[in-house]
Amino acid sequence: MASFTASSVSFSPVSCSLKQNQASSLRKASLSFSGKGFPSHRLPALRFRVACAAKPDTVNKVVNIVKKQLALPDDREVTGESKFATLGADSLDTVEIVMGLEEEFGIAVEEESAQSITTVQEAADLIEKLLEQK
Amino acid sequence: MALKLNASNFQSPKCASFALPPVASVRSPKFFMASTLRSGSKEVETVKKPFSPPREVHVQVTHSMPPQKIEIFKAMEDWAENNLLVHLKPVEKCWQPQDFLPDPASDGFYDQVKELRERAREIPDDYFVVLVGDMITEEALPTYQTMLNTLDGVRDETGASLTSWAIWTRAWTAEENRHGDLLNKYLYLSGRVDMTQIEKTIQYLIGSGMDPRTENNPYLGFIYTSFQERATFISHGNTARLAREHGDLKLAQICGTIASDEKRHETAYTKIVEKLFEIDPDGTVLAFADMMRKKISMPAHLMYDGRDDNLFDHFSAVAQRLGVYTARDYADILEHLVGRWKVENLTGLSAEGQKAQDYVCGLPPRIRRLEERAQGKARANEAPRIPFSWIYDREVRL
């Protein structure tokens, strides 16, 4: 399971940076170029350079918080790509998930940033960004 | 219902259900407003139309009540005659706006007007913003009578139908009509506000209508009106209190009198839903949960004055700051209704019904927690001052 998660995480930044044209992922890309977050010997041999993914550990913590908020069974598959909406979260759930993340990671999420979170991956990325800023 | 935090149900500046633009969002009960769309938004229009009033963004569902349930309301006619109409006041016993305004037929008229204006001068702009917003809401009464007449089983089929339901709706409308009239005349005489801008806002608002997502379904409709009447009771009660604090006892009396009407209406509507819980507990609790999931949208959420694209958000932020109508009030109303209708004690519910029961009973504390978080963040940033056309573009802090 852990290795499966790790490999899915390492591929998703490729898709996330390609499809999203957000300043945030560009910023993350430059951060990872500077060496933070991805020890170079662990970088998968990707054709595309950009790595904007959060650590698997962060993603897992987000997954757990989401599962708890939405009362999902442990065996329900929730990955970085999972959208809150698809998992059954309504708008109140999403806000409470963000609150749970704030408490878990000791961060404060701005309203504007909170508004842009729709998937587990986006939540994890935002968390890492905020942790780096601390 | 879009579930992104920033989408129709939450907070994009363009798609604002609970919406507030980020600056104003600091303090307001943005969670509690309905889905709106500015027609300039890219999500829907290819051509941006500047300066146009907002429109509902959600898909408008109709006739969601199974037609066989219409019978329930036909069968309730006698009950309605004996239990609902009693909450109406005979016209001869009703107050009229003139009772609270300077008397044009009297020699003392000019002095009375002068005194009214002197008292009004002592009342700050932010209070007037909220009072104007309330008045505009009341003046959009055609929309609310329409909404009641969209409901299956209880609508006034001809405009003069003699069913108890139709009699109630017309008489309710007639009572409410005095509210807008009274506030309009007071604001006109006060000299503190730009009547042209206010009148424009009213024209836009009636033109926009509203969809409270009651889907022609009287279960949803009467739950909605129960909530709303209590909300207006609280809101006018607070404007009355504030008017007293500002030294205008006559205005306090005006707002207080309107509030007492709303309380009487709340009693009536909650009685209907109480009866529905008795007749069809499962259907009613499902309806209650459905309305709360969709969130109770404020009647004037589509308000527009030709200038401010986020007028309702701005108005609500001020109402929140002044304590006239807050996110906490929303939670309190919900909690009150859960208790009033004894939702916790319902038995014999289906599995779906039990889920609905759990949802509704568990919702007030969740909303309170949300509101505390928002207030905590609000204290960190001071809200901006923005101009309101209703007061000649003078600025008020959100």
Automatic annotation (TrEMBL), chain A:
Record flagged with keyword Protein biosynthesis: no
Compartments it resides in: Plastid, Chloroplast
Predominant location category: plastid
Signal sequence region: none
GO terms, molecular function: acyl carrier activity
PROSITE patterns linked to this entry: CARRIER, PHOSPHOPANTETHEINE
Reported function: Carrier of the growing fatty acid chain in fatty acid biosynthesis.
Protein name: Acyl carrier protein
Source organism per UniProt: Sesamum alatum
TrEMBL record, chain B:
Residues that bind Fe cation 2: 176, 229, 262, 265
Pfam families reported in the protein's UniProt record: FA_desaturase_2
Cofactor(s) named in the record: Fe cation; Fe(2+)
Known partners and oligomeric status: Homodimer.
GO MF, any single term: metal ion binding
Protein name per the record: Acyl-[acyl-carrier-protein] desaturase
Entry EC number(s): 1.14.19.-
Enzyme class, UniProt record, top EC level: oxidoreductase
Gene3D superfamilies: Ribonucleotide Reductase, subunit A (1.10.620.20)
Organism from which the protein derives: Sesamum alatum
Family listed: Belongs to the fatty acid desaturase type 2 family.
Keyword terms: Chloroplast, Fatty acid biosynthesis, Fatty acid metabolism, Iron, Lipid biosynthesis, Lipid metabolism, Metal-binding, Oxidoreductase, Plastid, Transit peptide
Coiled coil (residue ranges): none
Gene Ontology biological process terms from the UniProt entry: fatty acid biosynthetic process
Cofactor note: Binds 2 iron ions per subunit.
